[in-house]
């Protein structure tokens, strides 16, 4: 029996090492991905419920690994966060998005883009200056840029993060709290944050359709929208996959929606056509 236990633990250790090695390899690959042009950005629209106009796009990073092909951000972003490399990635995303915004404006397309940022970005005291310099360089108004920060991120190192967040917002950049409802913070805690918008997490939104009005998820979504509005915040729902969910959210007074039902994330060059078709 002892032998068996030993065997299991060595098999476990081997599996463990393998996963560890794989992460190390991925991390070292990650560090050359920018220079080797393996990243690109896809853009997913958010549209206003009132007039069905696109209000903003969200930038989502894509990694095309030379051997593994598409590696989802949920896999490599946490790795980049744990290693500190996320700061380099975030700056690359900001730079790429701002260049794209400038290009769109040159062809008379004025739309805003929100970039996802991480907890480590909010301890990067140089970030507000970096953002301002990019906007200046490309002659863009700050309103062209938004930032999405997850709920847990802001709460983690609240004091420090708050200061940098305040600086970013005073530049005129719109701030959204992402994945709202998945963390521990209450709406009351949000009151003290420099925030413009709440993004209700898709785990609640995707369960809306087919549920009774008094079931848990509809009640959570509806009361979040009401309370957010009372605090002067806009609400966007992510993960809207069908028309029934759209109508429900419209009934609850949700301001904007995002999801596969409107559009999947798409490459930058597909956007002008999509916007043209969507408006008609
Ligand atoms: P997120 O910011 O919460 O982004 C929403 C995710 O849901 C995206 O996955 C998006 O493609 C997906 N999604 C959108 N609409 C629907 C829908 O109707 N149904 C379903 N099932 N999913 C939908 P993606 O692109 O794989 O990104 C996953 C996460 O990776 C993001 O979650 C975000 O936390 C992170 N991420 C992505 N790009 C970046 C980035 O540039 N920087 C940072 N720091 N994180 C990023
Ligand atoms: Ca997001
Ligand atoms: Ca989200
Ligand atoms: Ca998420």
From TrEMBL:
Domain EAL: start-end pairs = 23-279
Superkingdom classification of source: Bacteria
Q: What is the name of this protein?
A: EAL domain-containing protein
Q: Which organism is it from?
A: Natronospira bacteriovora
């Amino acid at each position: 029996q002892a032998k068996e236990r030993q065997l299991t633990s060595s098999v476990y250790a081997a599996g463990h090492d393998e996963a560890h090695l794989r992460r190390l390899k991925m991390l070292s690959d990650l560090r050359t991905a920018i220079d080797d042009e393996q990243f690109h950005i896809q853009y997913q629209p958010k549209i206003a419920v009132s007039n069905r106009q696109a209000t903003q796009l969200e930038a989502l990073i894509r990694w095309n690994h030379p051997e593994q092909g598409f590696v989802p951000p949920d896999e490599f972003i946490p790795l980049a966060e744990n290693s500190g490399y996320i700061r380099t990635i975030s700056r690359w995303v900001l730079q790429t998005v701002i260049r794209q915004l400038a290009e769109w404006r040159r062809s008379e397309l004025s739309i805003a883009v929100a970039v996802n940022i991480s907890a480590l970005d909010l301890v990067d005291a140089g970030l507000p200056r970096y953002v301002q310099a990019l906007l200046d360089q490309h002659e863009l108004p700050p309103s062209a840029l938004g930032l999405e920060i997850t709920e847990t991120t802001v709460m983690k190192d609240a004091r420090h993060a708050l200061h940098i967040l305040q600086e970013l917002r005073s530049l005129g950049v719109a701030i959204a709290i992402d994945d709202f409802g998945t963390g521990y913070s209450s709406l009351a805690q949000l009151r003290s944050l420099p925030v413009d918008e709440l993004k209700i997490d898709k785990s609640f939104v995707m369960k809306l359709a087919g549920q009774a009005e008094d079931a848990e998820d509809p009640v959570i979504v509806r009361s979040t929208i009401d309370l957010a509005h009372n605090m002067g915040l806009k609400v966007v729902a992510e993960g809207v996959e069908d028309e029934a969910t759209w109508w429900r959210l419209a009934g609850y007074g949700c301001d904007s929606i995002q999801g596969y039902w409107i559009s999947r994330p798409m490459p930058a060059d597909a956007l002008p056509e999509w916007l043209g078709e969507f408006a008609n």
